[in-house]
C-alpha cells in the first residue's frame, strides 16, 4: 500500500512496487495479514515518518509465511508460519523482516488473527512489565481500555494477578473491558478517573499507569499514582506539552517514563520480542490471553480501516487480510 502523498484515508493507494529483498539477518515474508495501528494514521497524515532505510509503506506488524532467507539467518526456515513486529511495510504482499522480530504463530491462533498480536504484545510487555515492573496485587490503570493496546494490557495485567482499572468513552466499551477482566471501570466522559481510582484503592492510587493521552492527562495521572507509582506514557493523543507539579511526584517518589517501540534499535526490539515469546505466548496458547479482533478487511480497503479507527468505533484490533494468502 503506497502513500504517494500525505492526507486523509484516500491517500492510501494499492499499487505494484518492486518486491523487497531480504538483507543480512532478514527474511522475506509472504504476508497473510497485517493490522492497523494508530501510528499508521499519523504516518498517512505526514506526522510520523519512518526512519531512513525503513520501508516507506505503512504497517508495523504482519503474519504470513517465510518465503526466503537472507544471509545470516538462523532458527527459521522457508515455509514457517510467523508473525512479526515491523518498522514499516506491512500493508503489502511481501515484507522483509529482521529475524529477531519474528515470532511463531501461537498454537490455537489462526494465521490472520496472529497479525494483530506482535505490536500490542511487545508494547504492553515492554512498558508494563520491563519498564514499570507491575507486580501481583498491584493496581494497573489502563487508559483507553478498549483500544488494541488496552485489550492486551487488561488481560496481561489480570494474568499476573494485578487489579486492573480502565478508562473508556462509552458504556459499551467499558462492558467489553469488564468481559476481558477489568475490575474498575471509568467512563472518562462522565467520571473523574482520579477520584474513581483513589476510591477503588482505599485512597492509595494506581501503582502503574499505562497512558496514551500525554499532556491532557499528565497532572491527573500524577494525582492518580500511588506512592512509588510508575507512569508510562506511550501515546500523545491529548498533546505533547504540559506542566506538572513535581512536588506531587517527589512526595510519591513517582517515576515518569515515555517510550516508543518503533524507533528502538534492532537489538532492543529483538530482546523485547524474545521476552514476549517467553512470557506472553504461553498465556495465549493456554487461552488465558485472547486476541481481540474488531474486524478483518481486505488490505486493498485499508482506507476504510483507517476511517473505522478514526471514528473510534473499534474494540481491539482492525486487521487487513491479503486476499487468498492465508490458505
Ligand atoms: N509508544 C509506543 O511504542 C506505542 C505502540 C503502540 C501504540 N501506542 C499508542 O497507544 C495508543 C493506543 O494504540 P492503538 O493502536 O491500540 O489505538 P486504538 O485502538 O485506535 O485506540 C485509541 C484509544 O484511545 C481512546 N481514547 C480517546 N480519547 C481518550 C480519553 N480522553 N481517555 C481515555 N482514552 C481515550 C479511545 O477510546 P474511546 O473510544 O473509549 O474514547 C481508543 O480506544 C495510541 O495512542 C498509540 O499511538 C504507542
TrEMBL record:
Pfam family, one: ADH_zinc_N
SMART domains for this protein: PKS_ER
Superkingdom, taxonomy of origin: Bacteria
Coiled-coil residues: none
InterPro entries in UniProt: ADH-like_C, ADH-like_N, ER, GroES-like_sf, NAD(P)-bd_dom_sf, Quinone_OxRdtase_PIG3
Molecular function per GO: NADPH binding; oxidoreductase activity, acting on NAD(P)H
Domain Enoyl reductase (ER): 7-320
Keyword annotations: NADP, Oxidoreductase
Protein name: PIG3 family NAD(P)H quinone oxidoreductase
Source species of the chain: Kitasatospora cineracea
Amino acid at each position: 500500500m503506497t502513500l504517494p502523498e500525505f492526507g486523509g484515508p484516500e491517500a492510501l493507494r494499492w499499487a505494484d512496487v518492486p518486491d523487497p529483498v531480504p538483507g543480512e539477518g532478514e527474511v522475506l515474508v509472504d504476508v497473510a495479514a497485517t493490522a492497523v495501528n494508530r501510528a499508521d494514521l499519523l504516518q498517512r497524515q505526514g506526522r510520523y515518518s519512518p526512519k531512513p532505510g525503513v520501508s516507506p509503506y505503512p504497517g508495523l506488524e504482519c503474519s504470513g509465511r517465510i518465503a526466503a532467507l537472507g544471509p545470516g539467518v538462523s532458527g527459521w526456515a522457508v515455509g514457517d508460519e510467523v508473525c512479526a513486529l515491523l518498522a514499516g511495510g506491512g500493508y503489502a504482499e511481501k515484507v522483509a523482516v529482521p529475524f529477531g522480530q519474528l515470532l511463531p504463530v501461537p498454537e490455537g491462533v489462526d494465521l490472520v488473527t496472529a497479525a494483530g498480536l506482535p505490536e500490542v504484545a511487545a508494547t504492553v510487555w515492554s512498558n508494563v512489565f520491563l519498564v514499570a515492573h507491575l507486580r501481583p496485587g498491584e493496581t494497573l490503570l489502563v487508559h483507553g481500555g478498549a483500544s488494541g493496546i488496552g485489550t492486551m494490557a487488561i488481560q496481561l495485567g489480570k494474568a499476573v494477578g494485578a487489579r486492573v482499572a480502565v478508562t473508556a468513552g462509552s458504556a459499551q466499551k467499558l462492558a467489553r473491558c469488564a468481559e476481558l477482566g477489568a475490575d474498575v471501570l471509568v467512563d472518562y466522559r462522565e467520571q473523574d478517573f482520579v477520584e474513581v481510582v483513589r476510591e477503588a484503592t482505599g485512597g492509595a492510587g494506581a501503582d502503574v499507569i499505562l497512558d496514551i493521552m500525554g499532556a491532557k492527562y499528565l497532572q491527573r495521572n500524577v494525582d492518580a499514582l500511588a506512592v512509588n507509582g510508575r507512569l508510562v506514557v506511550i501515546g500523545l493523543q491529548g498533546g505533547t506539552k504540559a506542566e506538572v507539579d513535581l512536588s506531587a511526584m517527589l512526595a510519591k517518589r513517582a517515576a515518569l517514563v515515555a517510550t516508543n517501540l518503533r524507533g528502538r534499535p534492532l537489538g532492543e526490539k529483538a530482546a523485547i520480542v524474545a521476552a514476549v515469546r517467553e512470557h506472553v505466548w504461553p498465556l495465549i496458547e493456554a487461552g488465558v490471553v485472547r486476541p481481540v479482533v474488531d474486524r478483518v478487511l481486505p488490505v486493498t480497503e485499508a482506507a476504510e480501516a483507517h476511517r473505522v479507527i478514526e471514528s473510534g468505533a473499534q474494540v481491539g484490533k482492525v486487521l487487513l487480510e491479503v486476499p487468498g494468502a492465508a490458505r
